[in-house]
């Protein structure tokens, strides 16, 4: 329980616990509800992260794909210009052939730059969505066809040099090779555009699915909030379940005899303030019990501070009893339970319709 300051001095208030008839809530119901809430939160956070990552990756992939396609188109344009220069070189002299060779060097450089751009784009898109990977693969296949066509063109250039001596018949073969190259480029461009269109349609379908998932997640959030509002009212029932008149009997096995079970709120002038969920008492000792739904390390540290305040408050009023500490929780884990036991606290856990008490690792803490 959080500590707050009280300006006015107030007397000790002792309230006897009274069991009121209430709707019976079993611990199995509480645990099951808390488990469902945890799973719902995890699934919601996971779905939101995946949706955000998918949207971001899709946007980046589309941007990179457009850049790569632009570079490819520029390379294709340069290739077409080189082919045109090649056709003109066929009609000229050796100087035209030399110019054609220079054009081929520029074409090869452009192809190399295009291949380098494609390689970088391929490395950056390795984590893209499956649809984008499919489109990239089709683009790479198209580039392979283009390189194959360019290789055929280079072979045709060699034949062109020979054709200058062999005559017009060889020139016809060269023109035929150029036409086939242009047809291959056109076909590759059409296939690339079709692949882009399919990828775009598939991404739009994915976006619809993402929006649908977001809508379902929002619905799950509302349902979770409704469950949480129902659970928030169970802590009082939990305190009533644990702080039963039969609880003192559980401590007899450890040599403690308590004859009273109460809840206490102590207040005094200054900073001493402590609200106690349960107090087991006798004339010489008192067991201060803190009740939590889930046991956490911060709760344990807070109870340590509460015990110091209880001791201070008792000393100022001449109460020389020995105070011990206990923490009750419906949900515990091994680490936090061992931490509480190491600090000298008893740990109380529900077991069906009863409770079990675990003693500290060494000696109980005494305040």
CATH class of the largest domain: Mainly Alpha
CATH fold call of the largest domain: Four Helix Bundle (Hemerythrin (Met), subunit A)
How many separate helices? 8
Uncertain ranges: 1-7, 224-236
Order of helices and strands: EHHHHHHEEEHEHEE
CATH architecture of the largest domain: Up-down Bundle
Average of per-residue pLDDT values: 78
Based on helices, strands and strand pairing, what is the structural class? Answer: alpha/beta
The tally of domains stands at 2
End-to-end separation in angstroms reads: 19 Å
Helix content: 55-70%
Beta-strand level of the residues, as a percent range? Answer: 5-15%
Concise account of the structure shown:
The protein folds into two domains: 13-25 and 236-358, Trna Endonuclease, Chain: A, domain 1 (3-Layer(aba) Sandwich); 41-228, Four Helix Bundle (Hemerythrin (Met), subunit A) (Up-down Bundle), CATH 1.20.120. The two termini are 19 Å apart. The protein is rod-shaped.
Could you give the topology of this structure?
Blueprint: E1 13-16, H1 27-91, H2 94-124, H3 130-166, H4 168-231, H5 235-242, H6 247-250, E2 260-267, E3 273-281, E4 285-294, H7 297-316, E5 322-331, H8 334-342, E6 346-351, E7 354-358
Parallel strand pairs: 4-5, 5-6
Antiparallel strand pairs: 1-2, 2-3, 3-4, 6-7
Q: Can you offer a commentary on this structure?
A:
With 367 residues, the chain is of the alpha/beta class. The chain folds into two domains: 13-25 and 236-358, Trna Endonuclease, Chain: A, domain 1; 41-228, Up-down Bundle (Four Helix Bundle (Hemerythrin (Met), subunit A)), CATH 1.20.120. It has eight helices and seven strands; from the N terminus they run βααααααβββαβαββ. The chain has a seven-stranded mixed beta sheet, sandwiched between helices. β2 and β3 form a beta hairpin. α1 (27-91) runs antiparallel to α2 (94-124) and α3 packs antiparallel against α4. The longest helix has 65 residues, at 27-91. The chain is rod-shaped, with a radius of gyration of 40 Å. 21% of the residues are buried.
